[in-house]
Structure formats: structure tokens, C-alpha cells
């Protein structure tokens, strides 16, 4: 049966979208699956924290490098070819990582996984955009948001359970058969017709893009470990910024750019992109700081730490389709303002943590925060993309996903650096206070050790609270920006009919 995909018309290809969503779910799930397993991997492979963190940073780095090229890939190749390539890369990386005996092989497998994931996200979003008319797009993107946010959210819970019962390699082994099944379903069920386009990839632009986004990501990702004064950090960021400026200038002068920066001529897209970046920076405060607090300071097990995040994930799963329908009815402004107000209030509440904060309080606070987040991400992004002409969808989705990766890296580096520096400062202040109070006699070695441990824990707690406070201000910036959101409708294409190498508003897909 043949079904026509366009932004105005026929019945969407639900079977094809379902296949893409299943593939996207397992690739997105993989983003956070290793977070709780990192201590086990450190012990098993005898590597330092600064080394093992590259399993997360490297994944983000590959995504940041490859996503800009997806605008070209979506225009050049069919959905079938891109989906199969993405799943093949992801499956190969999963098998390699699951059988790795040394860390470089594990890291290589992880980066192969990332290369598949980088293709999958923009591909699915582009298919969703051209498959549904504007008035129904919110509900459709709400379901997409469920996949995008729910999969990474349940990762820590699932990972915690597996780590407590099995070896960390099981994290890869249980995904492998699922990935193979999805790959086979896609091979037999996905059939789409696409005109052959005479397009060539500008390799110099790809190199500039890779150095630009990769350099910025590497620099900010290394800052938490090496410090902001390291030449590796500021050197990488400087090289990345210079390369990115040259890349943007080159793209603006090309008739058929690899990544079209003209999308920022549309004010609602530019605004939504800015809000999404700021929200992503704030989002990482909960994802990075809360696990450190519950496991390092409170001694909560990996399983219970994962379970703490589960109710928030369930709320996001329930709210995502509901939020999509509310977006269709009321637009993005009310949802974004409401969601960001909740996010600001709950993030501020996290800046008041103590060593006695109850587990129940943490669950409720995190769940309410996720409720706020669920009302922001997809409505804001969809509203911005709605203003673009159809031929700009691949460029808009690639731009959003790339900048979200960069914002996530910047947010992580900033908040980890704030936590580390403030922990050191608070430690020195608390030690000085303790020495002033210790006026009666010479304390025993045991008493000194206990006092040092207590000061260390209290200093880290204050450092985490300070980082959450910074995240509160970041979320506040997004809240202010949300006041300027207006309901967007598709703009006319200023260049008229698409060129032969630009994506058309209609692409024919068929299912067996």
C-alpha cells in the first residue's frame, strides 16, 4: 500500500513511523544507560574517572560532529537507506562494546553507537514534520517527545537493576537482540521511493563543521576535569569557534549549503532554538548533580538511585502526548511559561538540599520538575519548526539537535565546574571554622579523620546546592524568553520552488 507523506494531506504512514520510533527508542535509551555503570566499568577496566567519563562525553562528541551532516543525508538518501545505516552502525557498536575486554575497544563501540544515534533523531523528526499538517503536528510530536525524553529517563533505573544483578556488559547484551530485530523489520518493511538527486557533500564544509562543533564540545566537556585554565580547554574552544565562524560564512555564500543558516531568519525558530539550548543547560543539573548527591553523599544504592528517577520518567511518558494535544489547542506560549515556571521553582528547591533530605521529598521534587520539563521541550521546538518552509525542515532539525548537544556539553561543564570550585571554597571555609572552634585540647587522630570526612561531605553538599542555584538562573533566562513566543504557521518559501537538490514537501513512502 502506498501512502503519500506531506505537510498538508494524506494519511500519515503510521507503520513506518512506528518502526522509526522503535529504533529511536533503543538508541535514545542508550544515551543514559551507562551513567550508573561507570563506577563498575572503572573498577573492572582499571581506569580513572577522567578516562571513563569519555564513554558519555565521546557519545556526545560524535553526535555533535555528525548531526550537522544529517541535513545533507536526509535530502540525498531515502528513509530506508538512512534507517538501515543508522541501525547497522548502532548494532555493530553495541556488539563491539558488549564484548570489549579493554577500554579503547569499549570506547570505540560506544562511538559507533553514537554515529547511528546521530542519524536516527533528525531522520525521525523530519519524517514526523512532513507527515502531519500543522494543526495535528503537536499531538504527533508529543508522541515523539515521549520517545525522546522517556527512553533516557528510564535508563538509570534499568541500568541500576542490571548492575545489581548482572555484569555491566549485560547493558549491551540485552540491547543487541532488540537492535537486530528492529534492523530486520526495517529491512523487510520499509520501502520508500525517492528521486535520485545530483548532490555532492562538501567535504571541506564537513571538516569545518566537525572541527567547529567537535572542538567546542571537547573543550567544554574537558573543563570539568582539566579546569578552565587548561590550554586543552581554551585552545579547543578557540579552534572550534574560529572553525565554526568560517563554516557559517562559507555556508552563507553557497547556493546549496550543507547546513542552511537561513533558518534563523525566522524569528520563532530562532527564539525556540535559544530557549531549547538554555533549557538543555538547566536540564543537565538534575541528570548530573542529583545522582552525585544520592550516591556519593547519601550512600543510596544504584538501584534505588535509578528508582528515584522513575516516577518522573512515567510522568513525562503520560504528559508528552497530552502536552502535544494542548499545544495544538493553545499554542506553545502558555505551555512554555507554565512549564518553565515549574522548572525554575523546583530547581531552586533543589538548591536547598541537606544531608537529611528524605528520599520521598527527592522523588516528589524531581517528578514535579519533570512535569515542568515535559511542557517545554517539544512544544517550543515544534512551534519554531512550524514557521519554516518545508524545504528547511532537515536544516532546522539538524540545527536544533546539534545546538542541543553543544548546550548539553556546556551545561554539564559549567555546572560540574561550579560544583567542584564551590566545594573547594566551602571546604576551606568549614575547615577554618572548625579550627577556630577546636579550642579545648588536641583532638585525636580518629576525631580529626571524622571531622575531615564531615567537612568534605558538607562542602560537596554546598557545592551541589550552588550548582543548582546557577541552574535556577539559567532556567529563569528561558522563562523570560518564553514570554515572546507566538503561535507560528508555515512561512512561504522566499526562493520559490525547491531546487533539484533540495528536499521536497512530498516524499512517497510505502509499506509492504
Number of H- or I-type helical stretches = 19
* SSE pattern, N- to C-terminal: EHHHHHHHHHHEHHHHHHHHHE
Multimerization state = single chain
Strands, total number: 3
CATH class of the largest domain: Mainly Alpha
Q: Taking Cα atoms only, what radius of gyration do you get, to the nearest Å?
A: 23 Å
* Helix percentage range: over 70%
Under CATH, the topology of the largest domain can be stated as: Growth Hormone, Chain: A
Report strand order across the widest sheet.
Answer: 1-3-2
Structural domain count: 2
Low-confidence stretches: 1-8, 497-512
Straight-line distance between termini: 6 Å
SS-based class: mainly alpha
Any idea what the shape is?
Answer: globular
Largest β-sheet summary:
3 strands, antiparallel
CATH homology superfamily of the largest domain: MFS general substrate transporter like domains
Amino acid at each position: 500500500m502506498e501512502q503519500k507523506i506531506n505537510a498538508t494531506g494524506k494519511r500519515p504512514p503510521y507503520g513506518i513511523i512506528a518502526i522509526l520510533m522503535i529504533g529511536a527508542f533503543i538508541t535514545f535509551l542508550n544515551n543514559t544507560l551507562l551513567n550508573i555503570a561507570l563506577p563498575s566499568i572503572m573498577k573492572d577496566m582499571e581506569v580513572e574517572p577522567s578516562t571513563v567519563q569519555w564513554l558519555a562525553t565521546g557519545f556526545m562528541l560524535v553526535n555533535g560532529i555528525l548531526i550537522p551532516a544529517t541535513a545533507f543525508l536526509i535530502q540525498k538518501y531515502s528513509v530506508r537507506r538512512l534507517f538501515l545505516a543508522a541501525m547497522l552502525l548502532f548494532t555493530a557498536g553495541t556488539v563491539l562494546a558488549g564484548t570489549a575486554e579493554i577500554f579503547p575497544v569499549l570506547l570505540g563501540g560506544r562511538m559507533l553507537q553514537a554515529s547511528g544515534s546521530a542519524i536516527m533523531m533528525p531522520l525521525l523528526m523530519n519524517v514526523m514534520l512532513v507527515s502531519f499538517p500543522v494543526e495535528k503536528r503537536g499531538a504527533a510530536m508529543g508522541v515523539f517527545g515521549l520517545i525522546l525524553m522517556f527512553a533516557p529517563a528510564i535508563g538509570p533505573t534499568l541500568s541500576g537493576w542490571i548492575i545489581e544483578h548482572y555484569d555491566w556488559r549485560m547493558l549491551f547484551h540485552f540491547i543487541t537482540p532488540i537492535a537486530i530485530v528492529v534492523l530486520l523489520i526495517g529491512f523487510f518493511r520499509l520501502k520508500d521511493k525517492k528521486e535520485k538527486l545530483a548532490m555532492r557533500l562538501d567535504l571541506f564544509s564537513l571538516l569545518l563543521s566537525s572541527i567547529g562543533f567537535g572542538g567546542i564540545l571537547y573543550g567544554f566537556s574537558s573543563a570539568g576535569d582539566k579546569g578552565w585554565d587548561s590550554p586543552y580547554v581554551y585552545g579547543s574552544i578557540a579552534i572550534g569557534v574560529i572553525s565554526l565562524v568560517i563554516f557559517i560564512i562559507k555556508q552563507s555564500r553557497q547556493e546549496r549549503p550543507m547546513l542552511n543558516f537561513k533558518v534563523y531568519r525566522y524569528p520563532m525558530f530562532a527564539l525556540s532554538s535559544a530557549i531549547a539550548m538554555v533549557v538543555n543547560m538547566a536540564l543537565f543539573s538534575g541528570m548530573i548533580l542529583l545522582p552525585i548527591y544520592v550516591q556519593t553523599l547519601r550512600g543510596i544504592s544504584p538501584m534505588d538511585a535509578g528508582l528515584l528517577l522513575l516516577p518522573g520518567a512515567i510522568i513525562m511518558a503520560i504528559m508528552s502526548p497530552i502536552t502535544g494535544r494542548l499545544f495544538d489547542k493553545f499554542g506553545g506560549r502558555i505551555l512554555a511559561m507554565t512549564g518553565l515556571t515549574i522548572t525554575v521553582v523546583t530547581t531552586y528547591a533543589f538548591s536547598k538540599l541537606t544531608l537529611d533530605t528524605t528520599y520521598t521529598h527527592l522523588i516528589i521534587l524531581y517528578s514535579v520538575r519533570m512535569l515542568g520539563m515535559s511542557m517545554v521541550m517539544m512544544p517550543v521546538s515544534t512551534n519554531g519548526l512550524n514557521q519554516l518552509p518545508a524545504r528547511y525542515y532537515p536544516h532546522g532539525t539538524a540545527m536544533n539537535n546539534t545546538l542541543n548537544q553543544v548546550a548539553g556539553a556546556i551545561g554539564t561543564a559549567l555546572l560540574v565546574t561550579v560544583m567542584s570550585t564551590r566545594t573547594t571554597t566551602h571546604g576551606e571555609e568549614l575547615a577554618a571554622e572548625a579550627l577556630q572552634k577546636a579550642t579545648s585540647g588536641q583532638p585525636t587522630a580518629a576525631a580529626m579523620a571524622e571531622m575531615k570526612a564531615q567537612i568534605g561531605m558538607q562542602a560537596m553538599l554546598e557545592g551541589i546546592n550552588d550548582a543548582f542555584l546557577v541552574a535556577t538562573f539559567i532556567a529563569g533566562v528561558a522563562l523570560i524568553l518564553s514570554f515572546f513566543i507566538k503561535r507560528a504557521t508555515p512561512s512561504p518559501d522566499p526562493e520559490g520552488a525547491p531546487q533539484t537538490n533540495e528536499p521536497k514537501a512530498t516524499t512517497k513512502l510505502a509499506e509492504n
